[in-house]
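[SOLVED] Need 3D model of a two-part complex

Original post:
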Amino acid sequence: MTALLVAFLVSTIAAATPLLLAATGELVVEKVGVLNLGVEGMMLAGAIAAFATANETGVTSLGVVAALVAGIALALLFAVVSLTLQANQTATGLALTIFGRGFSALVGAGYVGIPAPTLPKIHIPLLSDIPVLGPVVFGHDILVYLSLAILAVVAWCIRSTHLGLILRAVGDSHDAAHALGYPVVPIRYAAVAFGGALAGLAGAYMSLAYTPLWAQDMTAGRGWVAVALVTFSAWRPFWLLIGAWFFGALMYLSLYVQALGVAVPSALLSALPYIGTVIVLVLISRDARRIRLHRPAMLGRPFQSRA
Amino acid sequence: MLRRQFTRLVGAGAVASTLPTLITAAQAAEPLKVGFIYLGPVGDFGWTYQHDTARQATVTHFGDKIKTTFVENVPEGPDSEKVLNDLANQGNKLIFATSFGYMNYVLNSAKKHPAVFYEHATGYKRAANVADYNIRFYQARYVQGVIAGKLSKAGLAGYVGSVPVPEVVQGINAFMLGMQSINPKARMKFVLINSWYDPPKEGDAAKALIDQGCDIITQHTDSPAPLQAAASRGVKAFGQSTDMAKFAPATELTASTDVWGPYYIKRIQDVLSGTWKSTDTWGGFDSGMLAMSPFTNMPPDVAALATSTVADISSGKNKVFVGPISDQTGAVKVPAGTTMDDGALSGMQWLVQGVDGKLT
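Solution:
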């Protein structure tokens, strides 16, 4: 029984990692008042960049760097169109997802069905061998720990630092932040680029660690779940972590339950994570007050300097 | 959807213009146009890859007597009918539709183009100009089961499947029977992922099975992801459709490989010589359409047993679905001394005793 639970937790944490990375990035983006729906596209760009680079060079860390660059490149494209040229953010984000899917499929056509080096798992001699705790807490690959570390830093930064205060100010009232002399648009550019980098990293996790392969649309909607998670958590980092683990578990559970021999149609089980997302979002948005309290007031609104 | 055309540089026409006296009628004729539609990308290194390897074999065999065209990533839906009609309108005289879900669209398209011959893989409906062809994949599953029976310490194997169609059910059952022929107490779990090609989900399904104690994994989906998941958890696994050893060299025991080439060559020859008929082909080891890749990562005695099992199935000594076989409820489905016929096999919708889980 313990062995079953341990195995389940290890797999859940792995399944949650790409969601957590991408959602942490999107959290920062939304905190400064920008809604970037292009997460799925940036993840796919990161996934193919990481896979292609690791495959060509044989070095996984270069693949990770390539994924960061690809994610940032797409994010900056979004920033130019939506922040500088002030196009509608929702439409631009959707376009970015469509572009990322198509572009990654095009670049990836030559990389289907070939192996690439896999991100190594960390083995800490004594710690990884502790029963139960060992494999659950230690014994993942580096991106798993990195995702948790990034979330912790982001949470601390937003909550307790001067930088976090500026970010929140820009997201809650860009006019006030502007009046105080903060460069609203450059700050948003930086946040969007950070979001792109983390989405790219999430993609790298998919194609180098989770399933060390490239396949068209391999992120399979995880970018959208990440966007939903930010709303689900009501823009609070701790709940983002809980949400990512919850959806990671749900995604994995749909297959796990079948192996247990429970008679539920497989088509229904496949839909489980998405049905779960919808239900949770509906439940969350019933509490309008809490949403108003945490939601960046300028979310999705363009900023135009009148000075 | 990508479309590519492969043409031979030296066409029959060029030969005809320079050497008009030497040519025969057959050489002067336009090359026979042959179309293929594929479910996945040609590089999936699984199902579609094997079909495309066979297409290339026909090009090598016939040279400039034929001209082949393929369309990849064709979903199993109404779009496939459009693609089939396009191929027919482009002058293809023989079209291979290489996935189960194209079946009804093949029939529709065939009705509209009575002069075009259609070949549908793994289906069961035929028409005057529609033939079907399939491989007895279950024979290879039985061999895998025998190997699993020898190697599984837990006596529990996991099967990553796609959708509960008879072909998958035959595979699960044949694997179980093979495993039980060695270890009568052996059991099996399976997960259906509702897709033929979805690497992250295939990998997750394999992990779910391994997490629940399966120490040997086989897959009926098309990417090497389950094999990789098995490798990362340190259990052994089987490859699917093609030899996937390069993805997990220390994990793959063997792979069932689909060999479509000889069939495609034969059918193209039939069209060329005007003897094409609507036939129903279901080839196993003996026909050369099914083969096992090298037996690796196992002791020599297990490899020898696997080799002799292949020989027995090939010679007809072992017919795989031989009674007594009971289903999950214990009801006898195949009485002792009888063998399931192809009709019953192709409609199989029950699981043999020892398999956990329900078909839904």
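Edit: The CA atoms of residues 10 and 136 of chain A lie 5 Å apart.
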